[in-house]
Amino acid sequence: MRRRGFTLVELLVVISIVGVLMGLLLPAVQKVREAASRVKCLNNLRQLGLALHNYHAVHQTLPPGMICSQSNISDAEASGFTLLLPFLEQDNTWRIYHFDVPWYQTVNYDAVGTAVKLFYCPSNRDNGSISLEAIAAEWGTPLPPWAAACDYAFCRGSNGALHQDWGRIPLEVRGVFHIRPPGDGQGLRLTEISDGTSNTIAMGEATGGNRWYLVADLDNPAQPAIDPLTGQTALIDQSWSAAGVGDRNHPWYGSVFAVTAQYGLPNDPRDEPMNRRPATPTIFGNDPRGDNASGRDRISGFRSLHSGGCNFLFCDGAVRFIPQGIRPDVYRALSTYAGNEILSSGDF
Predict the structure, then answer these.
(1) Helix or strand or coil: residue 231?
(2) How far from 299 is each of 54, 156, 184, CA to CA, in Å?
(3) What is the mean pLDDT of the chain?
(4) Which pLDDT belongs to residue 96?
(5) DSSP 103
(6) Which residues of 171-192 are buried (b: 16+ CB within 10 A; e: fewer)?
(7) How far apart are the C-alpha atoms of 200 and 334, rounded to whole Å?
(8) Which of 101, 136, 165, 231 could make an SS bond with 143 (beta carbons 3.0 to 4.6 A apart)?
(9) Cα end-to-end span (Å), the chain
């Protein structure tokens, strides 16, 4: 009995139908995956919120965003993420970290290179680190070979000043997290958040190491910067452990801080929009006044790979997705803790 096979025309029709079905199903699958990743990202922030509140219960304050003994904060001893390690079941990494010396000292190499899965947004990556070999060769100084990366940042408010004396920043534009010297080592009390913990951002997303977010050229912010060490366009990234910020000669780092504006005050607050591309690097410009009126200092903005906005952790422990179309004045108000703004639930 003769068996009938597919003709060429029938085979092409079948392939076309399969192609159409794949074209219809793939976007749906991608949407489901992104929805799951966004939920996981919110859960990461929720766990960071629990860690912040447990830290506060033990120390009676929130942790500082950065601990630095020098007036030049390009390098510091530790970050707020480092202080949270014991409250995130990362005791082993915390025990080997030496807080009495800067992060880049030899005794901190192992800790600095340790990846913490909770610090990565699932929509961006589940691992990653920053190579420090090129910068070590340029400076002629020993550095850890790698610094584990991070996709979240502490809210610094609506002012990009990077001064060791946080009291120089006007109260109405201050965020919850600041730079403190060793020994002081503590941050804000929850009772000091006069705007209300449910209306004050504690942390948010800071996507790093992704080509979607190139670093802006300081002299032409609409264009990406070229890293002369590699000859390639620079990607913004940051580390939970490499405490410090960039300078005008190395303007490619994001740091553990993020802001909603660089000045925050009238007449020109110099807003820092969510998901800005190319992304603003964090730059220590040695602003002598400490209020960033001169604009020498800059701090990166919040950014994510989620369509249309970012996930944020609020000081009451709640996590929320905020659309990037939020009004700039509302966005600034949410990032400060004592601005006395009046907000309603419909504002964000």
Answers:
(1) coil
(2) 27, 8, 23
(3) 91
(4) 96
(5) T
(6) ebbbbbbbbbbeeebebbebee
(7) 5
(8) 136
(9) 72
